[in-house]
Amino acid sequence: MEIRRRALSKPHRSLTPAGAFPAKSGSSTRVQASDALPIPIRHTNKLFSVLFMASMYYLMCRWREKIRTGAPLHALTLSDIPAIVGFIASLVYLISFFGIAYVQSFVSSHDDEDDFLLSSDQPAPCPLTCSKKSPLAAESLFGDDEEIVSAVVAGKIPSYVLETKLGDCRRAAGIRREAISRITGRGMEGLPLDGFDYSSILGQCCEMPVGYVQLPVGIAGPLLLNGKEYFVPMATTEGCLVASTNRGCKAIAASDGAVCVVLKDGMTRAPVVRFATAKRAAELKFFLEDPRNFETLEIVFNRSSRLAKLQGIKCSLAGKNPYMRFSCMTGDAMGMNMVSKGVQNVLDYLQNDFPDMDVISISGNFCSDKKPAAVNWIEGRGKSVVCEAIIKEETVRKVLKTTVSALVELNTLKNLAGSAVAGALGGFNAHASNIVTAIYIATGQDPAQNVESSHCITMMEAVNDNNDLHISVTMPSIEVGTVGGGTQLASQSACLNLLGVKGANLDSPGANSRLLATIVAGSVLAGELSLMSALAAGQLVKSHMKYNRSSKDISNALPPDS
């Protein structure tokens, strides 16, 4: 297969040798839709215009003659047939002529697809600029990197258009990085630039990149959960966290594993609207919560996606301002975009019956996203999960180095009473946020949703004649997905694959994301068990001094005047 490469009209010189396109020369050649015609388009237009007028004139004369003589209108002569064919052909051509711009873009898009078939020694071009044409892409940047950096520093070229105009995401990041260094007077030598596919984040994960942050990923496990073993990836810079969670996994596995159940699965979005009076706001509330209207609203909502399934709507008022909390299933996606599109469909529909409704915002904080909120704690958001295990007395003593009675007492005084004294909202646990965040970063979740996803109440109770420990974690709002966002990045995708939940589950949509939620809860259970044991045994400070402090002699690395 012949591979066509589009040439640049002027070569450039890269600031760094790695990752830059080799210099190319030559003129740009664009395929035109009219190239498919056998004669020039101006002659073709004249030919079909004359054919259209002549055939239409002939057919009108024949129609008038048949009416005058009383001949059947459907009767055709040999001369009528070519006239009809000519009329139809010319009409089709002239109508299609107005769609040449569309044909041009279609042909160009296929030409652009060939740009991805580059040799392995060249970095892949950015998909946004190579597969989609935008107005900004019409004017490409030419010149060497030094000239472009100077233009960015001078404010002549906005930094955010570099990817679009250069067509090379790696080169754009390098130019932006150098420009920022010159503007601030500070270097970024410790921030890696090479070794990352910048085209994979364009238009999806991060804007205006200048590099990437390295985070170590540790493995805790195996976590024995619902009869299966999982090795849990955790991205963190906190020493002792992975080791502690790993110890919790060991204690759970030694006690026949943990059991986890998903109680509810539904992402929420809550727009806020306004009426002139509270009476009208109440009428909307009654309309939304009337079961007779739900089927219609469900149909309107579900048009947003084949996976979107509206579950319910709850409406609260603040004076004349209704807050409508929509809950829906979103398959294996975390689902914020999906539910937002469904909500927009319903708002548009409601304007027919409530034309005086003023939509203030698609999100009115009654959702509630990335904020601690009682509504998530009570009603749930995302996946509501409960996980439990019975830890044998021998395991508590030998692996966790403490006693059942000490753990039960500590959990009551710390996680329950202590959190109540602090006025905690969803924080009736030791450190659920630690484990949730580490897994979220490793698997490409939204780290900011750690806020509500870490809502957790840890319960401990002595069972089996006070010999064994029953421990459980209840987490009402774990927000995870296995498709979309950061889950498609190579490193995060590899971590999802390790857990067996990469991508969408085609047989049972939503099964992968629900399994990931149970793994998060099971890992939190392991983390709670280990930390609480360390606290009960008085080992916390000793453990952190051992694992969370470097023993390396760094005096030689310090400057002389330090």
Automatic annotation (TrEMBL):
InterPro entries: HMG_CoA_Rdtase, HMG_CoA_Rdtase_cat_sf, HMG_CoA_Rdtase_CS, HMG_CoA_Rdtase_eu_arc, HMG_CoA_Rdtase_N, HMG_CoA_Rdtase_NAD(P)-bd_sf, HMG_CoA_Rdtase_sub-bd_dom_sf
Keywords: Endoplasmic reticulum, Glycoprotein, Isoprene biosynthesis, Membrane, NADP, Oxidoreductase, Transmembrane, Transmembrane helix
Subcellular localization(s) per the UniProt record: Endoplasmic reticulum membrane
One Pfam family hit: HMG-CoA_red
Annotated region (Disordered), positions in chain: 1-27
EC number in record: 1.1.1.34
Signal peptide (from-to): none
Amino acid composition bias (Basic residues), ranges on this chain: 1-13
Similarity comment text for this entry: Belongs to the HMG-CoA reductase family.
Function description: Catalyzes the synthesis of mevalonate. The specific precursor of all isoprenoid compounds present in plants.
Protein name per the record: 3-hydroxy-3-methylglutaryl coenzyme A reductase
Organism: Dendrobium chrysotoxum
Lineage: Eukaryota, Viridiplantae, Streptophyta, Embryophyta, Tracheophyta
